[in-house]
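hey so u asked for the seq, here:
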Amino acid sequence: MSQYKRIFIIGHSGAGKGVLAQGVAEKLGWKFLDADFSLAPSIGRTLGDIIGKNGEESFLHCLSEILSNQITKENIVVTTDDSIICNEKSRQLLSSEFTIYLKVSTPVQLERISHNRPLLPNADYKRFLGKLHEERDALYEKVARLTLDSDENDLKGHVNSVIEAIGK
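ran it, structure tokens below
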């Protein structure tokens, strides 16, 4: 029997966290919870630009509180907001859980978010997303127990990799 009671899926907007989480939850018979807001990538501005420094700190604190609440539950698969990794407390919590980093390259990410959300004209999304990757990729990798590459859209293979990794 698996020692894991919760699975958290982290990564950038457009990686496919929700699709993977739903697939894993369904296969395990667990509950899927979506805590992924993904505001910044769809408008090409940082959280600080959107809501100001104090607002960004409050938002990240709120994400940490949401995460703390989820850690008290069992048999759940949770997607997180891409900015969850920007908070030290959240990183510590994620490090103590079975956390999956779902990687996505900048070109694939840009293609996916442009299909799913209207993007503002005249924004340099490639540069913006590249900067987010520079800031966050190493942090995602540091807290993850398993890293999967979503560029190839191998949902079935990824679900099976997760199930195998948690020993189910």
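Residues 6-165 form a domain with the Rossmann fold fold (CATH 3.40.50.300). The beta strands are 6-10, 31-35, 76-80, 98-103, 146-149.
lmk if thats what u needed
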